[in-house]
Amino acid sequence: MGKRFMLLLTVLAAVMAGCSPGSGSNKGPAVRSSIDWVDFVKLDGRMYTGLYNRVIRDPELVTNRVAGEVKFRVADSVTDPSYRIRNGDAAYLAPGTPLYRVEGFGPDELIAARDESRIGGYRIYAEDSFFRTILRHYPDIPKDRVERIELFEAGAVRAFRTLTGEEKDRFIELLDGGEDRHDFFPDLTNGDPVYYTMVFYTDETLGYSHYMEDDGTTVYFHPDLTRVVDDEIRKFLSAN
Fold first, then answer.
1. SS3 category, 8
2. Rg of the Cα trace of the chain?
């Protein structure tokens, strides 16, 4: 069984028939299981994992060359943890979904599936060995090469603001100048925080995507530890 395709096996229920004292029953527990799947695809013997914190810089970089097609969706269908992943299996993509090649990458590195609910219009998948080489964390962003930053409300695919030039530079200064806090906990007095997505675009094919939150009192994000950012950053968190 592939070690990347499953995050967690959760035992939902265990019911033993005749388990009261003196019942004399030798029956074992009947167990129903549910699996939380990593967003994966298997194609031509290779396992690919979805990149949640990288997005395509330009949808035109996804070619019309099809690398393969999804044959079976395992989520909501497979509950056996010993199930062996097959070519054409995907965690969440529907059967018949085409998988496209990405300009500048071999099919043994990156593939993409059309998804209008994602920023850039595609889900990007990296082959597992290539996945380990991809820089994905905020400190990895080459800040001197960032051309623009797009800001999105939670769940949105259209940016409400694009930062370039001095605005872009000041935004990065505020992020980098924040205070890392071991003991931070958001103020939930007025409900859940407001979530934003920040996407940093360089000349690379893939942009860097990270979340920011505002609980009404504090703006913060998670480069590693939770980092509290100066309130000045709120002036960027609205449309131009």
1. strand
2. 22
Cβ proximity of 99 and 111 under 8 Å:
yes
pTM: 0.83
Quote the Cα angle for 35-37-39, to 5°.
170
CA-CA distances (angstroms) from residue 65 to 101, 112, 121, 160? 6, 11, 16, 32
**Phi/psi of residue 116, each to 5°?**
-70, -15
| Inter-residue contact 10 to 36 (CB < 8 Å) | yes
- Give the C-alpha separation, 31 to 102, whole Å: 43
The residues pairing with 226 across neighbouring beta strands, listed in sequence order, are 181
What's the pLDDT tens digit per position in 152-204?
999 999 999 999 999 999 999 999 999 999 999 999 999 999 999 999 999 99
Give me the residues paired with residue 73 across strands.
90
Distance CA 182, CA 178 (A): 13
**Tokens standing for 42?**
């298997």
- Quick check: 203 and 147 in contact, CB under 8 A? yes
Residue type at 229 in one-letter notation: V
In the chain, % of residues over pLDDT 90 = 80
Task: Report how far Cα 107 is from the mean position of its chain's Cα atoms.
Answer: 20
pLDDT tens-digit readout, 102-121: 999 999 999 999 999 999 99
Average pLDDT, the chain: 88
User: Which residue type occupies 41?
Assistant: V
Residues 6+ apart with CB under 8 A from 127: 46, 47, 48, 108, 109, 110
Band of the pLDDT at 24, cuts 50, 70, 90? very low
